[in-house]
Write a sequence for this structure.
């Protein structure tokens, strides 16, 4: 099996693709990955699907809302999650897992939670009343050069940057980590730090003690309101699920142990954040 840690290090949002059909062999590889069903922390039912738009049909791509932002891709992966307490978090964990496995095989991907038409994807996926589609992703061979809008989007979201470790990682009292202890975890924390997030807001805050981590969310007020009014899906909770996925694979590959997720809180919340989930290993 390919290393998920390597895929995490390699992944970046790709919006510019080689403008050609993927061919049967690659499509079969994608379908195989889509049919794998990774376990999610709180067991929300998620189902994924491979979606192809025949002959790069521009009118169909425009209808899906991805045209303009994404160039050269006519294949997508999409997933639905059943509504429930942890739906967005479990979706983020699941979908990032799929995008990382696609990255490991050399495909380019990009979470799209804002720039898509959910009702059109809903029709293609036969979405039921108790299901939602938080994000989809194009899938294809990355182009050599990023197109203009892609470069603009990356510039506006400062996509090549992340908050510092001091802003993101804390001890069990919710205080900044200092001194020894951090060293052992450093590589894993870097995997969390470089996780993708909607508009690159990085809402996760993580606290630690020896065999335990707790994930907290620090929402940005204005962004939260904007999302509530327009997109109506809690994309920042999707972000938390994505960061948890990176942590999960980091612990698994670097420490060689399994991670157990729960909703049990023992640590204090780092400043102005709210507890979401915890894990032990
Ligand atoms: C939940 C989620 C939703 C996103 N929605 C969009 C989107 O609608 N359009 C877009 O161009 N990028 C979208 N992105 C990509 C982010 O802008 C990108 O992950 C971030 O800027 C960091 O860049 P990187 O992925 O290259 O590391 C989304 C990412 C996440 C995690």
């Amino acid at each position: 099996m390919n290393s998920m840690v390597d895929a995490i290090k390699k992944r970046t949002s790709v919006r510019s693709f080689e403008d050609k059909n993927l061919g049967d062999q690659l499509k079969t590889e994608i379908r195989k990955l889509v049919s794998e069903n990774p376990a999610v922390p709180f067991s929300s039912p998620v189902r994924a699907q491979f979606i192809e738009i025949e002959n790069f049909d521009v009118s169909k791509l425009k209808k899906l809302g991805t045209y303009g932002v994404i160039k050269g891709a006519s294949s997508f992966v999409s997933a639905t999650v059943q509504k429930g307490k942890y739906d967005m978090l479990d979706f983020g964990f699941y979908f990032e897992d799929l995008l990382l496995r696609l990255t490991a095989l050399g495909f380019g991907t990009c979470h799209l939670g804002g720039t898509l038409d959910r009702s059109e994807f809903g029709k293609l996926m036969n979405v039921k009343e108790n299901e939602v589609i938080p994000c989809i992703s194009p899938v294809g061979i990355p182009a050599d050069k990023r197109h203009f809008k892609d470069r603009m989007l990356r510039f506006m979201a400062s996509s090549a940057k992340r908050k510092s470790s001091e802003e993101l990682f804390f001890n069990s009292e919710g205080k900044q980590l200092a001194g020894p202890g951090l060293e052992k975890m450093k590589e894993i924390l870097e995997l969390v730090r470089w996780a993708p997030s909607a508009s690159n807001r990085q809402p996760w805050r993580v606290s630690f003690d020896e065999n335990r981590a707790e994930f907290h969310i620090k929402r940005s007020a204005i962004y939260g309101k904007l999302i509530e009014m327009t997109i109506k899906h809690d994309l920042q909770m999707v972000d938390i699920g994505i960061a948890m996925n990176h942590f999960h694979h980091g612990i698994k590959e670097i420490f060689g142990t399994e991670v157990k997720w729960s909703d049990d809180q023992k640590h204090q919340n780092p400043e102005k954040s709210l507890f979401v989930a915890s894990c032990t290993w």
Q: What stands out?
A: The mean pLDDT is 92. The first strand starts at residue 46 and ends at 52. The chain is about 40% helix and 15% strand.
